[in-house]
Amino acid sequence: MLLILALAALPAHAQLYKWTDADGKVHYSDRPQDGVKSKEIAVQRPVAKPAAAPAGDWQRQELESRERRIQREAANQEAADTSARTAGKAPYNPSQHRSNKPMTDDEVCKRDAQQIEFSEKVPKLAFGNSNGSVSVSEEERQAIVRQRKENHALLCGSGQRTR
Questions:
Q1: What is the 3-state secondary structure (H, E, C) of the chain?
Q2: Ordered per-residue pLDDT tens for the chain, 163 residues
Q3: What are the Cα distances from residue 161, in Å, to 138, 139, 157, 158?
Q4: What is the spatial distance between Cα 9 and Cα 49, in angstroms, rounded to a whole number?
């Protein structure tokens, strides 16, 4: 590697000469021509660039980029949640964020707890079906909250899941 750098530095000190022959043709060379009036030209050589980054460097940069994106997305989500809370919008509704992916017991417990919290906070509870949305009365809402709490207690215990 040092030999390559040393060889690359040698031409940086070389001179360039220019002359015109009898036919009017211009020539350039690194040595002056014998018997011909040549003019020395100052050459500005580009500065040697540092050696290329190691092959694994792109992987580190990719990882850092992904981490920054995840942090940015989390900050954006937090800002959206904060703005929704300050605007007095409805709390997070887990039913709107469904997935066909199988859920673990801990995920089911977390979802149930979110649904219970949502059902308690929303003054008017409504369920969607093929005919549109169906609102429930206050008594039905209270019954739904009680039923959800009972089901949650059966699966998850009194709060934290125990194994």
A1: CHHHHHHHHHHHHCCEEEEECCCCCEEEECCCCCCCCCEEECCCCCCCCCCCCCCCHHHHHHHHHHHHHHHHHHHHHHHHHHHHHHCCCCCCCHHHCCCCCCCCHHHHHHHHHHHHHHHHHCCCCEEEECCEEEECCHHHHHHHHHHHHHHHHHHHCCCCCCC
A2: 666 665 555 555 557 778 788 888 888 777 777 777 777 777 666 666 666 556 668 888 888 999 999 899 888 888 877 777 777 765 555 556 566 677 788 888 888 888 888 888 877 777 776 667 778 888 888 888 888 888 888 888 765 444 4
A3: 30, 29, 6, 8
A4: 12
Cα separations (Å) of 5 from 51, 71, 148? 10, 41, 74
pTM for the structure as a whole: 0.34
- Please tell me the distance from the alpha carbon of residue 101 to that of residue 145, in angstroms, as a whole number: 25
Cβ(152)–Cβ(161) below 8 Å = no
